[in-house]
Specification:
single chain
Amino acid sequence: MKAFSPLLFFFVAYVGGSILLHDFYAIPIIVAFVAASLYALFVFRTKPFNNIVMAFARGAGNENIMYMILIFILAGAFASLAKSIGAIDATVNLCLYFLPTSLLLPGLFIATCLVSMSIGTSVGSIVAMVPLAAGLATQTGNSVALYTACIVGGAFFGDNLSFISDTTIVATRTQGIAMHEKFKANLRIVLPAALIAMVIYAVIGFGSSATHSVDAPDIVRVLPYLVVLVTAICGFNVIVVLAIGLLLCSALALGLYSLTITSVMQSVDSGVKAMCELIVVTMLAGGLMEMVRINGGIDSLMNKISRRIKNRQGAELSIGALVVLADFCTANNTIAILTVSSIAKQIAERFGIAPQRVASLLDTWSCFAQSLIPYGAQLLIASGLAGIAPTQIIQFLFYPFVLALVTLGSSLVKKGK
């Protein structure tokens, strides 16, 4: 247990401190990781201190960690620059422009799925779509909680599949696979869940008298998202994909939308800065997990898990349980995936589970957990924008519950890899 004490220290400091302060965001997650990292450096005294520090540094500077950080930087720059040319608003308008009024509720769900998949952030999609959905619900006398939950579910669907989502980046890089491999594996799980949720929303919202009007779609502004999506699906390296997206956004900004070179650079700068906390936490988590590994923690846990797991189904369920538990403790699905990824990889190798399947399980189960915690950023923001309690939203979150059932079923009946 001593080998895992740095992680336990982190969980106690972050979760326990937040409970004592009655505010899950009172303690910044980066502060909790710094404290846990310092604890890890001083608690293990079996080696010279300089050797311990160097081991931590090797974990923090692991080639997969550095690769992820480069992707985070490019993804942040692309997302910020795309937003500056109005790509988010254009994507929302494009989706809503073609929605039939009689199917507004499932239409909002589909629109949010596409928006989130394009911009790669569930939080950003919620910010863009919840005010619109809440307004439509109020206008027609329908449930604000229902309409808001529809948006939250769609946001998690898109985030789970997006090629520029931080959860996808972490899930694929830690398992050593290409993004399009995880996309194909994930689509088999989330698409049936989304279709079932859409039918539920269609039945509930059938006959709605809501009306809405939006501007005519501007396809040119949506083009960067479409190019990124298509090139990623075609199997291009994610660095190339994001570089193409950045160049296209820059060309549109300077050529069609009259932005200056200075404003383009400032937009890129703000996007990269927005990723700084995630970058630092990723490095600290990498160092922390290396400390656990070199002190035998991962091998010990693997031995204990292996004795209890009898087959592939049990292995997949264990991976899901680990990432759900980590997400409940951190309230951050990206950090949850990063925390358990190395253990999940070893479980998968032992029981012959394909890496793309593992990445899909990590991303899917973490998104499910994140959608159910009322202290998570997504539900807090959605409830704040809609003016309701987070618990009111959870009761209408059909998509995450269906997703969990489909994922569980796929683990129980799936054969082979």
